[in-house]
Write a structure and sequence with these properties.
Layout lengths: L2 H15 L2 H11 L1 H18 L1 H4 L31 H37 L1 H16 L2 H11 L4 H11 L2 H14 L3 H8 L4 H12 L1 H24 L11 H5 L5 H6 L1 H28 L7
Helix pairs in contact: 2-15, 3-5, 3-15, 5-6, 5-8, 5-9, 5-12, 5-15, 7-8, 9-12, 12-15
């Protein structure tokens, strides 16, 4: 046997031993864009967490005599219309924007997984009822409904998270339902029925793990959408309100041409943070989609 044939057999044997999880991790790590996005999000998260140690300024302290100061050694990114340090507020705003994006997506994913699992597994009238409810939620104009709710109740971080979490469950629900509809007819599910396994164990232990990949990708991409939505609501004054900073409401101070033209340091930093964070989550989502694709197994 030639040396090349021996190497090929050893390589094939080694790949057979590796688990699907390790194969997926390996593919994700080799994806440069996905790893760059992950590193950027980790940096954003760490800077937000350790904001008090990275800036000597207080988040809400203002000095009207220091309004619209350009970047300097004392104020790295200048000051805003209230004389507050923009770099400090940008760090704290990262906490809010990332938290809103992650928590609202987790809420919507939890509701969607529960509803989608019920619809896909039981089918018939259960499926019809849940899907018609999903159609009702999907037909509602999100921004119009969010603006109405925010007008009735006081805008806050909690309200923003709950509104997005409750209204966005239909996407994960439809995705999981389609996955379960294809999985429940396979042979391994017939074996679970023959063994007398309960419905809850069938869903939790057998169906959900096999449908895990697309859900993870969907959740990751939805975080980017949630950050954009929070920014839009806060920019309109219907999301998170000052003095609590978020990247969206930091942009709201630049709503006239004079500020846009003369005080670039007020709107460019939060705008760049939104852009980079959204792109990073999209890169991570794309990387996960490629990494979890079973067609790429060798």
């Amino acid at each position: 046997m030639s040396t090349n044939q021996t190497k090929i057999k050893k390589r094939a044997a080694g790949e057979e031993i590796r688990s699907p999880f390790r194969l997926a991790v390996g593919r994700f790590v080799r994806n440069r864009m996905a790893m760059a996005g992950l590193i950027i999000i980790i940096i954003f998260a760490l800077m937000s967490i350790f904001a008090p140690f990275l800036s000597p300024h207080d988040r809400d302290s203002y000095d009207m005599a220091m309004r619209y100061q350009p970047p300097s050694s004392e104020n790295l990114l200048g000051t805003d219309d209230m004389g507050r340090d923009i770099f400090t507020r940008l760090l704290y705003a990262g906490r809010i924007s990332l938290m809103v994006g992650v928590l609202s997506t987790l809420i919507s994913a939890t509701i969607g997984i529960f509803m989608g699992a019920l619809a896909g597994f039981y089918g018939k009238w259960v499926d019809m009822l849940i899907m018609r409810l999903a159609d009702v939620f999907s037909s509602m104009p999100f921004y119009m409904l969010a603006i109405t709710v925010m007008a009735l109740f006081e805008p806050s971080v909690k309200a923003t998270i709950i509104i997005m979490g409750v209204l966005w469950w239909t996407g994960p629900a439809r995705l999981l339902r389609s996955q379960i509809l294809s999985l429940r007819e396979q042979e391994f599910m017939e074996a679970t029925t023959a063994l007398g396994i309960s419905d809850v164990k069938k869903i939790v232990q057998h169906l959900l793990p096999n449908a895990f990949g697309p859900i993870v990708v969907s959740v990751t991409l939805n975080i980017a959408n949630a950050i954009l939505t929070e920014s839009a609501l806060s920019y309109l004054g219907l999301g998170i309100r000052i003095p609590i900073p978020s990247w969206g409401n930091m942009l709201s101070t630049a709503q006239n041409m004079y500020v846009l033209s003369n005080y670039w340091w007020i709107w460019i930093p939060p705008g760049l943070c939104i852009l980079v964070a959204v792109m990073s989550f999209n890169f991570i989502g794309e990387g996960l989609r490629d990494a979890l694709d079973p067609k790429l197994d060798r």
